[in-house]
UniProtKB/TrEMBL annotation:
A single Gene Ontology CC term: cytosol
Extent of the signal sequence: none
Keywords, alphabetical: Pyridoxal phosphate
Family: Belongs to the class-III pyridoxal-phosphate-dependent aminotransferase family.
Annotated protein name in UniProt: Taurine---2-oxoglutarate transaminase
GO MF terms held by the record: pyridoxal phosphate binding; transaminase activity
Species in which this protein is naturally found: Parafrankia irregularis
Length: 449
C-alpha cells in the first residue's frame, strides 16, 4: 500500500518534515487546514520518492518545469561551479553567466529578437512584458484569453482567465478578456478546427474593433494554453492573431512560460504556427526549474522605445548568476542531447498513441489533446454531454478517486479541475513513459470499477 492515508508510517525524516510543514508553511491556492502535502524526499530523472520512500513516476514535471527531469548532472554541476565562483551580483553589473544565458536563449528565438530582460519567474515576466507594451504604444488596455493562466501577482492574475482571478479581481485598469479557440467546448459552436479558428479570429477582431484599436496596447496569450487544459490552437490561429495585431498596431505577447523550452516539441510553441510575436515571456523550463528564472525576449521596435528613455522597472535578482548558470547548462544540455526533438517524437510515437488507446478503453476520457510532452485528458460524465467530472477550478469525489488511484499505482500526474495532464520530463525514456501509461490505465480501471 502506498501513502494517501495508508496504514504504512512515514519515514522518520519525512514525518518530521510533514509536521513542520503543516505547522509553519503557508501553501499556495489552498485552505491551510484542508491540505495534506506529499513530502518529496529525493528525486532522480523522471522519478521522485515520497513520504513512505515509495518511488513515483513524475508525469507532472512538478508544476510542468523539470523539462530535463530531476538532478540532471550537467545542470547540478553548473550551479555548483557558479556558486563556488560568484554566487551573486547586482543587475546593474555585467556578468558572464547572465550574458551567455541571454545569448543562448536568443539563439533559439527568431532573429527579430534582440535582448532579454530577466525576471525571477513567469508572473513577473508577464507583468514586465505588459509594461513594455504599454510604454511602447502609449496605450493601457490589454486583451487576454479566458481559460488562461498568466501568474499569481497582481496584474498577472487579473489577465488570467481562470477562476483564480475572481477573488483577486479588482478590475485592473484596461484588462479585457476574449475567447480563444477550443473546439471540444467551442464557445463558437464550431464543428471543426478550421471553423473554430475562423470564428475565434472573427470574435477577436470584433473585440478589438469595439474596444477601440487606438486604446489597446497588447494581446497577451499562451501559445498553447497549458494550465487551463493544453488547448493546442488550430493551425492558422496564432498567425491570424499576428495579422490582427499588425493591422491595429498592437503588441503581440506570446506567453511561453509553460509551453516553451521544448515542452511542445519545439523550442517555442509559437513555431508550430510559424509566427513571430513581438514579446515572448518564459520561465520554468529555461532552468528546468532548478533555480527560479524567467524573462522577456524583446524585438527591435519595442526595444527602440528604451534606447534613449530609461525603462522604469527592475528586480533585485534580475539575471541572478546561479539561475543564469543553470539556464546556460540547461540549454546546452538540451542542444547536445537533442531534447526538443525527443519531446516531439515522444508525443508522436508514445504519448499521443498511448493516450488515444486509453481513451478507446475508458469512457470517462472525453478528449485527448496535446503535442510533444504536453498532453491532457479531459474527463467527462458521458461523452454525449461532455459534462466535466469536476467543476472548473474545483474537484469532485470521482476526480479524487482517480487521483488517489494514480498514487497507489505509483504515478504522479498534474491534476487540474476535471483533467489529468500528462506532462513528463522531455527526456523520459520510452520505457518509463509506457510504464506510466500502463499505471494510468490501471488507475482509471480501479477508480472507475
Ligand atoms: N504564464 C504561464 C503560461 C504559466 O503557466 C505560469 C505558471 O504556471 C505563469 C505564467 C506564472 O509563472 P510563475 O508561477 O513562475 O510566476
Amino acid at each position: 500500500a502506498r501513502g494517501g492515508g495508508s496504514a504504512v508510517p512515514r519515514t522518520p525524516a519525512a514525518a518530521r518534515t510533514y509536521e513542520l510543514d503543516r505547522r509553519h508553511v503557508f501553501h499556495s491556492w489552498s485552505a491551510q487546514e484542508r491540505i495534506s502535502p506529499m513530502v518529496i524526499t529525493r528525486a532522480e530523472g523522471s522519478w521522485v520518492w515520497d513520504d513512505y520512500d515509495h518511488p513515483l513516476l513524475d508525469f507532472s514535471s512538478q508544476l510542468v518545469f523539470t523539462n530535463l527531469g530531476h538532478q540532471h548532472p550537467r545542470v547540478v554541476a553548473a550551479i555548483q561551479q557558479q556558486a563556488a565562483t560568484l554566487c551573486t551580483v547586482a543587475p546593474q553589473h555585467a556578468n558572464a553567466a547572465r550574458a551567455e544565458a541571454a545569448r543562448l536563449i536568443l539563439s533559439h528565438l527568431p532573429d527579430t529578437f534582440e535582448k532579454i530582460f530577466f525576471t525571477n519567474g513567469g508572473a513577473d515576466a508577464v507583468e514586465h512584458a505588459i509594461r513594455m507594451a504599454r510604454l511602447h504604444t502609449g496605450r493601457i488596455k490589454v486583451l487576454s484569453a479566458y481559460r488562461s493562466y498568466h501568474g499569481g501577482t497582481d496584474l498577472a492574475i487579473n489577465v488570467t482567465g481562470d477562476p483564480r482571478r475572481w477573488e483577486n479581481d479588482h478590475g485592473a485598469a484596461g484588462v479585457v478578456h476574449f475567447f480563444g479557440p477550443f473546439l471540444y467546448r467551442s464557445p463558437f459552436h464550431a464543428t471543426d478546427e478550421a471553423q473554430e479558428c475562423e470564428r475565434a479570429l472573427a470574435h477577436l477582431e470584433q473585440v478589438i474593433a469595439l474596444e477601440g484599436p487606438g486604446t489597446i496596447a497588447a494581446v497577451v496569450l499562451e501559445s498553447i494554453p497549458g494550465t487551463a487544459g493544453v488547448m493546442v490552437p488550430p493551425a492558422g490561429y496564432l498567425r491570424g492573431v499576428r495579422e490582427l495585431c499588425d493591422r491595429n498596431g498592437l503588441v503581440m505577447i506570446a506567453d511561453e512560460v509553460m509551453a516553451g523550452f521544448g515542452r511542445a516539441g519545439r523550442w517555442f510553441a509559437f513555431e508550430l504556427d510559424d509566427v513571430r510575436p513581438d514579446l515572448v515571456t518564459f520561465a520554468k523550463g529555461v532552468t528546468s526549474g532548478y533555480v527560479p528564472l524567467g524573462g522577456v525576449a524583446i524585438t527591435g521596435p519595442v526595444l527602440r522605445t528604451f534606447d534613449d528613455r530609461a525603462y522604469p522597472g527592475g528586480l533585485t535578482y534580475s539575471g541572478h548568476p546561479l539561475a543564469c548558470a543553470a539556464a546556460v547548462a540547461t540549454v546546452r544540455a538540451m542542444e547536445d542531447e537533442g531534447t526538443v526533438a525527443a519531446a516531439d517524437r515522444l508525443g508522436r510515437d508514445v504519448l499521443g498513441p498511448g493516450l488515444r488507446d486509453l481513451a478507446a478503453r475508458h469512457p470517462v476520457i472525453g478528449d485527448v489533446r496535446g503535442v510533444g510532452a504536453f498532453w491532457a485528458l479531459d474527463l467527462v460524465e458521458d461523452r454525449a454531454s461532455r459534462t466535466p467530472i469536476a467543476p472548473t477550478g474545483g474537484t469532485s469525489e470521482r476526480m479524487g478517486r482517480i487521483t488517489a488511484a494514480c498514487r497507489v499505482e505509483g504515478l504522479l500526474p498534474f491534476v487540474s479541475s476535471n483533467r489529468i495532464h500528462v506532462v513528463p520530463p522531455l527526456n523520459i525514456s520510452d520505457g518509463d513513459a509506457r510504464a506510466g501509461l500502463a499505471m494510468l490505465d490501471r488507475a482509471l480501471g480501479a477508480a472507475e470499477g
